[in-house]
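[step 3/7] inverse_fold.run input=structure_tokens len=48
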């Protein structure tokens, strides 16, 4: 059920949480997922 999003993908607007440190990243509709701003991890899960 876990749906992982990776840096460089465009998963659509929403809030994504870093799988390493839990930092939330808020993306717009056409934004590319950046590396985590805190730990540079490249895996995220969708929060909402
Ligand atoms: Zn992180």
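[step 3/7] decode complete -> sequence:
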């Amino acid at each position: 059920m876990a749906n992982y999003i990776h840096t460089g993908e465009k998963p659509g607007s929403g809030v994504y949480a870093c799988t390493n440190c839990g930092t939330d990243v808020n993306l717009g509709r056409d934004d590319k997922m950046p590396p985590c701003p805190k730990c540079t991890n490249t895996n995220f899960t969708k929060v909402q």
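[step 4/7] annotate
The longest strand covers residues 14-18.
The chain has one domain: 4-46.
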